[in-house]
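A reminder before we start the practical. When you read a complex entry, don't treat the lines as separate problems. The point of joint prediction is that each chain is placed relative to the others, so the output describes one connected object in space. Small molecules and nucleic acid strands, if listed, are placed in the same frame. In the example below there are two entries. Take a minute to note the order of the lines before looking further.
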Amino acid sequence: MPPALAPDALRLSLRRHGRVPLYHQIATGLRERIESGDLPAGTRLPAERELARAVGVNRSTVVAAYDELEAEGLVDCRPGRGTVVSAGRAPGPGPDWARRLGSAADRWELPLLAEIQDALAAPHLIPLAHGEPGPDLWPRDALDRLLRGASLARVPMGYPEPHGYPELREALARRLRGRGITAGPESIVLVNGSQQGFHLITQTLLSPGDAVAVERPSYLGTLRLFDGSGIRTVPVPVGPEGIDLDHLAASLQPGVRALFTIPTCHSPTGTTLPEPGRQRLVSLAARRRLLVVEDDPFTDLVLDGPAPRSLKAFDTAGSVLTLGTLSKTAAPALRVGWIVAPAPVADVLARTRLQFDLGGGILSEWVAARWLASGGYDEHLAWLRQPLARRRAAMLEALGRWLGGMATWVGPAGGYHVWCRLEVRASSLAVFRAAVRQGVAVVPGAVYRFEPGAPHVRLSFCRAAPGEIAEGVRRLRRAVDRLASRSAVAARR
Amino acid sequence: MPPALAPDALRLSLRRHGRVPLYHQIATGLRERIESGDLPAGTRLPAERELARAVGVNRSTVVAAYDELEAEGLVDCRPGRGTVVSAGRAPGPGPDWARRLGSAADRWELPLLAEIQDALAAPHLIPLAHGEPGPDLWPRDALDRLLRGASLARVPMGYPEPHGYPELREALARRLRGRGITAGPESIVLVNGSQQGFHLITQTLLSPGDAVAVERPSYLGTLRLFDGSGIRTVPVPVGPEGIDLDHLAASLQPGVRALFTIPTCHSPTGTTLPEPGRQRLVSLAARRRLLVVEDDPFTDLVLDGPAPRSLKAFDTAGSVLTLGTLSKTAAPALRVGWIVAPAPVADVLARTRLQFDLGGGILSEWVAARWLASGGYDEHLAWLRQPLARRRAAMLEALGRWLGGMATWVGPAGGYHVWCRLEVRASSLAVFRAAVRQGVAVVPGAVYRFEPGAPHVRLSFCRAAPGEIAEGVRRLRRAVDRLASRSAVAARR
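Here is the predicted structure of the whole assembly.
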C-alpha cells in the first residue's frame, strides 16, 4: 500500500471569509486534481485529522469534503485504508501506479530518513545535524560580483563536451597539481556533485553482486546507492586515525572489487588518515587489484596545518579515483563536482554520463571556472576557515564541559563533524528523539547502520553559531540525563 | 581488448625549436603520465602512425620515443596489440581496467556514433546533421542581461529541494496551464535535461525485462537507455501524421508496460500527431494500463498555427508523463528540463533523483525562472521562430528542386528536422559516407536502427543558414547521383 499524500502536496488555498463553504472549497480543489489525472486512481489522500490540522479547519469539514467526493464516485473511503482516489470516472484504470511506485519506493527509500529530514527542517531545533552550512557562509556576494562582471559571449551553449567545460577542468588540473596530483584536463570528468560521480562509478565500474569495502560508519549517499544497485558492502571499522588498515587487509576476499573511503575529515567520524597510512592503503590496493574511490570533499577545509596529500598522490598503478566538490566549501546548490581518474577510465565515465543526462549545466561550470582561475575561490576558503575554526572550538569546549566523562569523541582536523559515543543505555534513535524533545537536532548512528554497544551521534559544527552550538550540546546532555534516569528506573523495576 | 587512446588524449605539447629532441620530449611526456598512474597498466597507446600525424612528426620519431619507454620497462610493444603500458614499474598490477572498461563500453556504446560525431565536428561539412542550433541562435545577450541585473540574495544555495527550485516550477505550472495541462508545482520535477528524465523514468518505473512501445525510427537517447537497462522495445511505425495508432493497438501484448512517443515535430521524422489521434492514444493507454511518456521538446517551435495540445491535456487517468526542455528552444548547455507527472509519481521520481545526483544546479534553474516569469523567454521564442521558418522554407525548396522525384518527405509543422526517403539502391550508411565526401553532413537512418527497403536520412534545418541549406541539399543530390551511377555499373556487371 503506497503512503498517503502529505497534506501540503494538495496545495489547497482556502478563502476563509468568502461565501463558498470551506468543505466545498476543499472538495472543488481535489476534484479538479482528480479529474485532470494529477491525483490518479489509487492515490491515498491525507488522513482527515492530518489534513484538517494542515489547512486549519475542523475535522468535520474535511469529512464533509471527502463525503462530497465519495458521493460523486471520485474517491472511496474504506476503513483501515483511508480515502483513496477511485477509478470510477477515468476512461480506463490507468497505469498500476500503486504497484509500480511501491517497488520503486522499496528500492530507494529508508523510512528513518524522513524523520531526520523533519528534524533538519524544524526551525526551533538547534541545528547540529546538517551536512551543509547556512546562508551566513554562502558565497553569494562573491558569485554576484562574478555574474555581474561576466558575459557569455565566449561560452559554449550547445550540448556539453562529455568531460565537461574545458576551462573548469584546466583550472582544476592546475589546482590538483598543487596537491600532489598529476592529472591533465582529460583525466577529469565534471559531475553534478560527487553523488553523481558515485552513481556513475557504481553503474559503470561495478556490477550487481560485486562487493565493496567501505568504512563503517560511512556516508549515507553511497550506502543507499549500493543497496539500489545490488552491491554488497564489506564494512571496515574506523579508528581515531581513520580506516583500520589491518582490518581492511584481512577483509579483502576475492569478491571485493573496490574500496570507497573518505580519508580526510571523514563523515561521520571526523577522522583523518595520516600520510603513511595512505601510502600503505594505496600499495595494498595496487597489489590486490582493488579500485579505490576516494571521496574528498573536506580537503580544503582542514584547519590544522596542511592537509595530507590525496590518496591519488601516492598512486602509481592507476588504482585511485578521487572525487572533489564545491558543495562543502562553497554551496551545494552549485552542483559542481569532479572525478579524477586514469585517462581511459575518465573517458568511459564521461561517455556513460552522456547516457545519464547529456552533461552538466554550463552556468555553474563557467562560474566555478572563473572563480577558481581568478583566485576568488581561495580567498573565500581563507575566510570560511575562520568561522569554521571558531565553531569547532565551541563544539569541543562544550563537549568537554557538558559531556566529559559521559561520552568519547575525537577532535577533527577540520571538516564539519564530530562523532560522539555516549555512555548511556539507549539506542541512537532514542538519543535522537530525546534530543529533539530537548530542542536540538543530531544525526543518530542508526542512519549509518552503526549500532554497536553504545549509541553514537554525529554532531555538526558547520551550521550553528558558536553560542548556539554550546547551547545545543547542553541540551544533548539534558537528553542523555533523561534517558539515563529512565533506564535507571527501568532497571529498578 | 580496450580501444587505443586517441592521440589528443595524450596532450603532448612539443617545443619544435628547442634543444631537446622531439622523440625525447614525447617520451618524457608519456613517462610522467605512466608513472603517476594516469595511464595505468594495460592502457593502449595510440598507433605510431596516428600519433605521428596528430603531433606533426615523422613516424620514426614516435618509434624512437616508444623504444625509449620500452627500454625502461614502462611499455610493451607487441605485434598486433600495439604499444601497451606495462605493469613492470607499478607496486602491483592495479585494477583490471581492460576487463572493467570493456564491459562498460559494451553496455553503453554504439560504434557508429563516433563516426557521426566526427562528421558533426568537421568544420568543412555543411551541417544538416545537428540536433541543435549554432551560436547565431543562442540567447546569450538575453541571458547576459538577466545575469547582470540579478542578485543571488534570495536564492537558496543549500542542497536542492527534491523537485527542484520552486520558482521555476511555479513559472512552468503557469505556462503549462496555458497549454491545457493542469499541474501544480508539486507535479513537476526539474531535471538536468530530458535525458535525465528518461533515465529516471527507466530506472524507477520500469524493470529489466519489461517491454516498451516506441516509434520506429525514434530518438536515439532513449533507445540507448533501454539497451543499457535490459528493456525490450516494441517498434511502432510512423506515418505522415505521426505514430500509427492501429499498429500500436495491435502491438500491445501484456509485457508492454509503456509507450515512449514524440507526438509533436517528431525526431527524426518531423511528423505531428493531430488532436483526434492524441485523444485516441490516451484513451487506449488508459484502458490498457499503459504508461505514456511524452517527449515534447518542440511544442514551442511549431511554426504553422497553434501547436496541438499535449497528450497530458487529454489524460484523465494519470497515464501520461510529459517531458519538456529548454534545450531546443534556448540552449542545451543550460540543462533545464522537466517532467510533469501525477503528484505521487513526481514525488517518487524526485526522491529517486536525489540518489542520482542530489538535484540540479540552482544557477540554471534560477536564470530560467527569471526568464520565464519576465516574459523574456516568450520574446525569444517569437524571435527564434523567424529564422527557423526561413530555414525550413529553404530546406523544402531545395528538396523540391534537387531531389524531387528521387526522394519523398513530409513537410514538418516545425521543429528542426525533415526525414527523407531516397530512391537509390544503397544503405543509409553508404548515403551518409557519400554525402560526407560531397561536403555535407546528414544523419543516416541506420543510427535509429531503421533500414527498410530504401535509405533514409534526417536533414536538420536548425543550424545552417538558408543559403548553406540549399547548397547542402544540392551536395546530397550529387552524393545520390554518385551512388546511383555506381550501382548502375554494378548492375551491368
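Discuss with your neighbour: Chain B has three domains: 7-103, 111-131+385-492, 140-374. What might explain this?
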